[in-house]
Amino acid sequence: MHWSEMIADRIIRRNPDKEEYVCAAGISPSGSIHIGNFRDIATSYFVVRALIKKGKKAKLLFSWDEFDRMRKVPVNVAAIDSDMEKYIGCPYVDVKNPFDTEEKTYAEYFEHEFERSIVKFGIDMDYRHQAEMYRSGKYTEHILHSLKKRGEIFDILASHRTQPVQEGEREAYYPVSIYCSECGKDTTKILSLSDDCTQAEYTCQCGHTGSFDFTKDFNCKLAWKIDWPMRWMYEGVDFEPGGKDHASPHGSYDTSKDIAKKIFGYEPPLFQGYEFIGIKGTTGKMSGSSGLNLTPDTLLKIYEPEVILWLYSKTEPLKAFDFCFDDGILRQYFEFDKMYTAIKDGTATDAQKDIMYNTTVGDRVLNTVPMSLLVQLGSVVDFNVPMLETVFEKIGTPYKHEEFAERLDRAKYWLENCAPDQVNRLRDGRNWEVYEALNETQKAEIKALFEYISAGDYDLDALNKKLYAIPKEINGENLDEKELKTIQGAFFKNVYKLLIDKEKGPRLYLFLFAIDPKRYVGLLDFSYPKTEEETKAEEMKKAEAKAAIASENADKHVYGEADAFVPLKENQVSIEDFEKLDLRVCQILKAQEIRKSHSCLKLTLDDGSGENRVIVSSIKSEYTCEQLVGKKIIVIANLEPARFAGVQSNGMLLAATNGACGCQVVFVPDCVPAGTQIK
Questions:
Q1: Confidence (pTM)
Q2: Which 3 state secondary structure label does DSSP give 602?
Q3: What are φ and ψ of residue 286, in 5° steps?
Q4: Of 88, 8, 83, 18, nearest to 53 (Cα)?
Q5: What CA–CA distance (Å, rounded) separates 280 from 322?
Q6: What is the pLDDT of residues 178-214, one digit of tens each?
Q7: Which domains does the chain carry?
Q8: Are strands 239-243 and 220-222 parallel, antiparallel or unpaired?
Q9: What are residue 203's phi and psi, to 5 degrees?
C-alpha cells in the first residue's frame, strides 16, 4: 500500500463520517517558491488523491500567507531594487512589486509565478489569501478569543521552550501583532488592552501612538503558532504536512497542537513531517547566489511534470531525495520510463501501480523516447529535427518529432544550462595535436577506420564488430583478453578526441552509424598535410590557451611560506566559558566596500532572528563582494559591538589566517539554515 493511502486510512478512522476531508498546505510568498516548498503541496495532493480513490470527497486547501511580515529582502530582489529594505516589517501584500510586470504587489508577483507552474502539474487547489481573510474580519471572533485567553496561550508557549520565563513577561504578552496605521509595519507594541479585549492602545517604533478597535480595525495578525491552529479549526483541516523542523519535539506542530486543543477546542489534524529536497550537480546558472531560485517552473525546463510527481510519489515523506542537474537526471528518466512502460504493457507490480497513480497529469499520454538518446545524439545534429528523425530511422528506432518534441526541448535546455561539458559537437577541422601525439600503431588504427567508413556498405551490427576488430587486426591476433581491452579502450578514446574533442561520448557504433559519414569522415583523414586554415586555427587555439592561463594566474593571490606552528595555549577554558559564546550560522545578504577602509568590507547578514545584522571584516584583499553574497558563514553573535572604519560591527566571522593561504573564511554548506547554533 502506498504511503499516501496509509495516511488516508488514518484520516478516515479519525473521522469516518465527515462529508469532505480537507488536506492543507501553505506558503508565505517571501520570494520564488522553491522545489522544497513543493513537497508540502505534493504530500497533501497525494493524500487527497488517496482519499478520492477510497470513495471519499476531499480537497486540497492552499493558503497564501501573504499577510506575514517581510523579514528580509532576497538577494535577487535586492539586485533589482536596492530600495526594498524599507518594506521590512510590512505584510507582503502591501509591498510593491519590484519587477516590471503587471502584478501590483510583491505577493501577487510570486503567487502568480507559482500558480502558473502548478497548473502544469494538473493539481487543483482551493486557494485562501490570508490578507483577505484577516482584513475582511472573518477571523475577528477568534482574535478576540485569543486575546481573552492570552495568559493560557503564553503558558502553553512557555511549556515548549527551554528559556525560563522572565518576570513580567506573561503580563506583557499579546498573541496578536498590530500593523501600524502610520507606517504600515508590525513594529508595534501593545501598551494596554480593555477588559473586554476589544480596544488596545499601542505604540510603534516609527514614533506613532494610536488606538486599535479589534471589532472594526482588522489590520492585525495572530502570531504564527496561534494563527496556524486557528486556521485548522476555521477550515476544518484533517491533514497537513510540514518540514521536519516543524515535526521536532516541542516544535511548531507540538506547540500548535496544544493550542488547538486547549484554546480552540479543536482536535488537531494529522501531521506528517517530511525531509528536505537535495540538489545534485547545480552549475553557475542554477546557483542560488546568482538569484535564480530552483522553482517548480525552473525544474519543468528539464523535468516532465510526471517525472517530478513520480520522484515525490515514490519517496516516502521522511526520506530525502535529489533533483539532479548532473547526468543523474538521465538515470531518473530511465527509471521513470521503465515503470511507465510496465504500466502500459500490464507488467507493473501493485507497488508500481500505486506510485504511478499519483503521476498522471490530466489526459496527457507520454512518449518515452529515451532522454539519453536525445542528449547524446541531439547535440551532434545541433538539435535539427529532420536530421534527428533520420538518425532514429537509421538506428532502427523511427521516432517522429511529435513523439520527442517535448523531451528534446528539455534535453537541449539541460545540456546548454546544466551540462555544457556533455554537449557533443563535431570538430570544424582535423585535430592535428591529438593525431601527432599518437604512435604509429594508433595512427594505423585511425587510418583503418577511415578507410572502412569511406568504403561504406555496412550495417549497424557490422560497424560495431569492426570497431572492436580494428585494434586486433592492427596489433596482431596474439593478444590476451586484458591487453586487447586496454588497446580497444585507447582506440575508442582516440576516435572520440579526433571527432568531438572528448575522451568519451555516445556509444561509438551508434554515433558513427547515425551521423552522415560525410560530416565526420574527413576528420579521420590525415593522408594530406595541414592546410593553411588548420595551421592558423591551431596557432589561435594555443594563443587563447596561453592568454587564459595568464589571466587565471593574474587573479590568483601569491602567498608565501606557511607560518611557523604556534604552540597551543596552556590556559584551558571550561565548558561553561565556551557556552558563553553564541556561534551562529549567518547568510551574507549584502557585501559592500567601505570608502574609509582599504581592507574592510561591510557585511549585512541574515542571522535567523528576522532582523538583519551588520558586521565589519577585514577580508577585502581576499574576496570580492560578488563572491560573498549568498554564502553562509559562522559568526560570534554575542561579541561586544565595536566600530571599524566608522561602521558599527555586531559580531565577528570565523576565518583561518596563515601566510600560506592568506585569510580564508570558514563557509558553511547551503543546506544549514541561517540562525543555526554551532554547539
A1: 0.75
A2: strand
A3: -105, 5
A4: 8
A5: 6
A6: 999 999 999 999 999 999 999 999 999 999 999 999 9
A7: 3-164+223-274 (3.40.50.620), 281-389+402-421 (no CATH), 432-532 (1.10.10.350), 575-668 (2.40.50.140)
A8: unpaired
A9: -130, 155
